[in-house]
Design a protein that fits this description.
167 residues, alpha/beta, Dihydrofolate Reductase, subunit A, 8-stranded mixed sheet, two-stranded antiparallel ribbon, globular, NADP, dihydrofolate reductase activity, DHFR_dom, NADP binding, DHFR
Length: 167
């Protein structure tokens, strides 16, 4: 079975994914969706994103991309110096989720089979951005809209994009 790589991210309409190494929004229902989609799966994540105060970690397996790994790894944590080493470490997996940050998303976008991409319907300030991608390369397989309410300041759409096969 071929390793499938899935990007999972939330971005604002102006492509912001972070501010000061944190999410610029609090969307509990989007986090519940994230947990459901990624349950029991391995993650590839950059070091800064892994260390973010609001980071979500896999209870199964986390591969952290860093040029400076610690001497002692935490349980369920492995380290890789780059994308190719991270993929090699996870070659026995079938589904792997890419959690960012921005440079990891940029490097992984050409390799991803799917994108679970939540669009937060707002223009927000930030210092980390999701890379531009060509919508012609992707098919929108599903989209679930969530309006604002007492727990969600912003409305958002949880989208699943599947990479189109070359013709």
């Amino acid at each position: 079975m071929k390793l499938q790589l899935y990007i999972i991210a939330a971005m604002s309409e102006n492509h912001v994914i972070g501010l000061n190494n944190s999410l610029p929004w609090h969307l509990p229902d989007e986090w519940a969706h994230f947990r459901k989609v990624t349950a029991g799966k391995a993650f590839i994540i950059g070091r800064k994103s892994f260390e973010a105060p609001d980071a979500l970690h896999s209870e199964y397996r986390n591969v952290i991309i860093t040029s400076n790994p610690p001497e002692q790894a935490e349980p369920r944590v492995e380290y890789a110096k780059d994308i190719s080493e991270a993929i090699a470490l996870l070659s026995d997996e079938t589904d792997v989720f890419i959690l960012g940050g921005a440079s990891i998303f940029r490097q992984m976008l050409p390799l991803a089979d799917r994108m679970y991409l939540t669009i937060v319907h707002a223009q927000v300030a930030g210092d980390a951005y999701f890379p531009a991608f060509d919508p012609k390369d992707w098919e929108l397989a599903s989209s679930e809209f969530h309006g604002t309410d007492d727990d969600h300041r912003y409305s958002f759409s949880m989208n699943l994009y599947i990479r189109k096969q070359p013709e």
